[in-house]
Amino acid sequence: MTTQSVSEELLRLKNVRKYFGLPGAPWRQAQAVKAVDGVNFVVRKGETVGLVGESGSGKSTLARVATRLLDPTQGSVEIGGVDVTNVRGRKLRPVRRKIQMVFQDPQASLNPRQSVGTILSTPFRAQGIRPTRAQLVELLQQVGLSEEHLERYPHEFSGGQRQRIGIARALSVKPDLLVCDEPVSALDVSVQAQVLNLLADLRDELGLSYVLVAHDLAVVRQVTSRLAVMYLGTIVEEGPADQVYSAPAHPYTKALLSAVPVPEPGVERDRIVLTGDVPTPIAPPSGCPFRTRCYKVQDVCATVRPVLEPVHGSTEHRAACYFPEPPPPERTR
Amino acid sequence: MAEPVLEVHDLHVTFTTEGGLVPAVDGIDFSVAPGETLAIVGESGSGKSVSSAAVMGLLPSNAATTGEVLLDGRELIGLPNDELRKIRGNDIALVFQDALSALNPYYSVGWQVAEAYRLHHDVSKKVAHRRAVEMLDKVGIPDAARRVDSYPHEFSGGMRQRVVIAMALVNDPRVLIADEPTTALDVTVQAQIIRLLDDVQEEFGTALVLISHDLGVVAEVADDVLVMYAGRAAERGTVRDLFYRAAHPYSLGLLGAMPRVDVPPKPRLTTIPGTPPSPGSIRTGCPFQPRCAYTHLVGERCITERPELTPRPGEGDHEAACHLGRRPEALL
């Protein structure tokens, strides 16, 4: 159970599908919401992987499958080199020691009737450990809070502090991998920067790895080393963050990046304004899921769904597109 | 510059609560001219949304509003409700953040847009319906003639926001107040809505007051910016004054705290320590003083004396409320 994987893979999702449908009757499966539709995803030790996409892209569902909060409809979940797809109940506890989750809304994910001390000791007790006060204080200090906060209740804290408590709780079992689902989207800009810096500090101090699920591409750029872009339940592009941000290959990534406003008044940017909305994940388009909104669409796009293939001469940077954007000419790599 | 259509002078909004009087807005001034966009920027509790609600006369009864709100020179504060109703939605319209709760799920979108028109125009249902189709078409609802009979739940978030904007614009208002109009939307849809607001402003010459916490959106659409902190104006000026010549430590902090998508990341974001104060908790001195990194350069005055807006170098009427008379040097 505790064998260390040679490649130091912390997480591997193999061909994961997650359909939300009505149980039982097969004729109802046609109505299933295909939230995640065939995703391969690997996180190695020391990586910070950004998982971005718009609402309905399946990024949060994928995060929940990865942390075993949801069972995949198909495919497998390996955590620390061990297949845990079919591990359930109490047997999942050793798994949870390796991978923890931080949720978007600290207001909703902290029990209002428990003191911070109780909240932080719950994960210890789930692992059969009675934490000492010193351990709890150390956790609080790791996230920039102090001993005096131990007896207080969630409502006595600001949004940013609550998110710190959520992070401290996730750190309590000393996980290798933290999956953060929109960790800063509920926070004010000035507080958001504090939490992003904290995540970076924890990565450096504790050697943590992250999966950062977010819709805000600027936030993700600040902290990630690798980026995966999701659209309608599939990963359409992935690669080293600096490569994807500076030279996106998939038309969707390019449009998405161009849509993010930049704080430089008077500077005109080449913006690709996509028309229409994301199609329903109940009946995604045939072939490429993005073809209904794509500015490069051809007949072939409606035939077979394109798979991730290396682009720009890099083995790590891959895009699922028949007509990927060319690399910029001044590219040095 | 053109004559302002909306002018606000020395606006104060005070809420009476169980905990005492809470000054949510503590003396702000702004104005906006036809075709221009003023952005009001601030974090939670800065009073930006309360200011816009005060302009519309939409505050609950425990709020006391003083000051001047002039629409084409006509004072709105103190107007009886039936007079205000003639102005709201007709001369000044409001677009909210959450389009789903701004629409009634029981009525078709066309009915709701037509109703907004009929409230201020004595026309038949048929004429109002035609007007609704025209407006929905104008805000980019595809196949508007058919979609006019759809219900809000049949629309996506971006389409709903378009319906709300159609409803706000149906009476050709002189002023449109948009309170975080794109915050709930995905970036690709946000880009569509920003372009739409830009287009309607050009076509109708509407004055736009944009309330936002997103400096990227502000940089893109605003002509002038007012930065609010704890119910007060921290800084105001043209959009270029704010982004290239920020004179208030808070504005500078906000700009530094914002991660950017278009350049490789800095090793660390600059942060503002602490959290925004709750309204009314700081009654003397500068409200930003407890979080400010420059207080030591000024001294006691920051704690004892409330800074007023004073002129700063810039393009237009660039002003900042800070005792540090010069531009703060970026720390680190």
Automatic annotation (TrEMBL), chain B:
<dbReference type="InterPro" id="IPR050388">
    <property type="entry name" value="ABC_Ni/Peptide_Import"/>
</dbReference>
<keyword id="KW-0067">ATP-binding</keyword>
<dbReference type="Pfam" id="PF08352">
    <property type="entry name" value="oligo_HPY"/>
</dbReference>
<dbReference type="GO" id="GO:0005886">
    <property type="term" value="C:plasma membrane"/>
</dbReference>
<dbReference type="InterPro" id="IPR027417">
    <property type="entry name" value="P-loop_NTPase"/>
</dbReference>
<keyword id="KW-0472">Membrane</keyword>
<feature type="region of interest" description="Disordered">
    <location>
        <begin position="308"/>
        <end position="332"/>
    </location>
</feature>
<keyword id="KW-0547">Nucleotide-binding</keyword>
<comment type="similarity">
    <text>Belongs to the ABC transporter superfamily.</text>
</comment>
<dbReference type="InterPro" id="IPR013563">
    <property type="entry name" value="Oligopep_ABC_C"/>
</dbReference>
<dbReference type="InterPro" id="IPR003593">
    <property type="entry name" value="AAA+_ATPase"/>
</dbReference>
<dbReference type="GO" id="GO:0005524">
    <property type="term" value="F:ATP binding"/>
</dbReference>
<keyword id="KW-0813">Transport</keyword>
<protein>
    <submittedName>
        <fullName>ABC transporter ATP-binding protein</fullName>
    </submittedName>
</protein>
<dbReference type="InterPro" id="IPR017871">
    <property type="entry name" value="ABC_transporter-like_CS"/>
</dbReference>
<dbReference type="GO" id="GO:0015833">
    <property type="term" value="P:peptide transport"/>
</dbReference>
<dbReference type="InterPro" id="IPR003439">
    <property type="entry name" value="ABC_transporter-like_ATP-bd"/>
</dbReference>
<dbReference type="GO" id="GO:0016887">
    <property type="term" value="F:ATP hydrolysis activity"/>
</dbReference>
<dbReference type="Pfam" id="PF00005">
    <property type="entry name" value="ABC_tran"/>
</dbReference>
<keyword id="KW-1003">Cell membrane</keyword>
<feature type="domain" description="ABC transporter">
    <location>
        <begin position="6"/>
        <end position="255"/>
    </location>
</feature>
